[in-house]
Amino acid sequence: MYTWHWEQIPQYFPLIAAATRRTIEISLVSIVFAIAIGAVAGLLRVQPLKPLRFLAAAYVELLRNIPLMLVLYLIYFGMGAFWPISPFWASVVGLSIFEGAYVAEIVRAGIQSVDRGQMEAARSLGMSWLQGMRHVIVPQAVRRSLPPLTGQFVSLVKDSSLASLVSYEELMLVGRQINSRIFSPFEVFLTIGALYFVICLALSLLSRWMEARLVGP
Amino acid sequence: MVEIRGVSRRFPGGHFGVRGVTLDVHKGETLVIMGPSGSGKSTLLRCVNGLETLDEGEIIIDGMRVNHDTTDWNKVREEVGMVFQGFHLFPNRTALMNLVLPQTVVRKRPVAEAERNARTLLDRVGLAGKESRYPSELSGGEKQRVAIARALAMNPKIMLFDEPTSALDPEMILEVLEVMRGLAREGMTMLVVTHEIGFAREAAQRAVFLDEGVLVEAGPAKELIDHPETSRCRAFMQRILRRPEGEEGKAWT
Amino acid sequence: MRFRIPLTVLLLALLGCGGPATKQERASTLDRIVATKVLRVGTNPGYAPFEMIDTDGNMIGFDMDVARYVAAQMGNGVRVEFQTSDWDPIIANLNAGKFDLILSGMTRTPQRALRCEFTDPYFETGQALLVNRAKWKSAGKLGVKDFDRRGVVVATRLGTTGEIAARKVFHNAAIKTFENESDAALEVDAGRADLMVYDQPYIAIRAQESQERTFAILTPFTKEYLSIAVKKGDTELRDWLNLAIFELRQSGTWDSLYDAWFVKMPWRTRVSEPKKP
Question: pTM value?
């Protein structure tokens, strides 16, 4: 029979609060980088120059077919052997390039979902490919990409739990540390779970608000 | 103005979209291209503004060879306006901004001037007061008129129309044809792919008939329509003109 | 109406059956183990030389041999089945019934004893330090306190007494916790951490394996007693195990096991290719 020991949790609130802050920090920074990497890779996949298209495709395929945990290990333990990198930055780099590949696909799909006629109309008016992308295609693509992108970023927040493996003191690691002291997995991990839930929910709501604010009918 | 010489375009499957077409479009002329579906009408039109590349032949626009690899198509397209069957207005911008965007981005005009031009053009196509409407708030006929105005905003030398009324409900075809007729009267060089026989008869100077990618017959519009010489053209005209009421042929009453 | 009486009788009978059934549940773990001839031992391999995986994938170690001794004492042909578990939920897994006891170089602590029952110790050791050679080569006689400075990084393993000891002792140095001891040792090896805190036997072996990059300070700075853990409430099994451990020492078996695993160490070649000098 399991006896509940909720009273053991409050003493760890400061530790949990710090961990929550770190999870949010690492997620936000990684999201920013993932957007940058993914947007570039996604655009490269649809532009006219073949070698660049190939490069972007290779990156996406590579990162989508290996586990995130492996990427983190390669960066922190592997690369870190001759190029010292902190757990925070190793996790950010790992998360960014990993999720960036998925963002690239979302961006690509978003761009390709815009009617071909839009680009034809833009080009017919004398716009270059770049101008067409910038003024006509991308604004429309962004609108459509927002829901799947949000999903990807929520995934990122959840994936940030893997930073625990390289000893970054975010929610998951701290949860396990507390549990190893009080041996009450339900209380500990329900608390941690609730915090992840709140963070992810906040992210979803933020995205919905942004969607509503975008110009256009 | 536009010289099309022996132009051929092959599709990836191998078969020809257009084959050995030679055609001249004179300045200020309205020329109609007709033919059954799949005859290469749109393909030919799209070769003129570079949306399709040539496999054979050459096109000369206003003295400039344009099938050449080094052609700066962006520059060419500033002078060649195109109106599509599907309108292709930019949905996230108002009617006004649809017209302003190409002017500011491509022609680099100051915003104020671009807006002024835009308003004038929208008024000209009968849409004064609808500048701040989004395309989703406009009817098909209104959308196409905005599209025409947008192409005109670039002050092109030539206007291409790719079946501009084929996607419209019958009651809206008239308003669009009216705008096109007005343009023709003002002396715009126009190349129009259409099934609208009435327009062809009344507003066009010349017409050509394409079948299976080949230019079968060409001549003064009225002549080609009323008295086609080739059997294929004749068969086509008969099929078109025998269609039920409300369609082509009745447009210009 | 017709069914009400028979139904009530049936219900009461079932409840009555609950009586003897519950008695069966409370029948001892020890009896069950002997009857089923299987002793399930929970362990977390990696702590050399207590439990390790050799190059063929077999689990070998001091604890494995202790387990086999214990099973032999039960008689009736009881054999051992080893179950691996992650370290930090190992006690939770024990209580969930995934195995009958934990034999995994586990230190007996009052906090842990709130959640399980510990036998008398079967081994005594303490925490030692694995130190990065490049950073501390001009060391001299160093004690634990000498490392407690800002800028020093201490690697530990999550949920071990090494982590607990490190947190007690180091207030200025930074502490990093890792999933398993080899990751923590790798931190020191690679120079990302200055030192690692872990049980002395492991430190000794690990320091030997990476002599060019690390050295050990083997004097233990804590005293730790390794015990076998059983499910909370299972005092009967615990008491029997105490007897078995007593016998282990009395019979001289403990000494020969110690000799094999800590002194002569013929198992070294089984665990890794002999390193070229």
Answer: 0.77
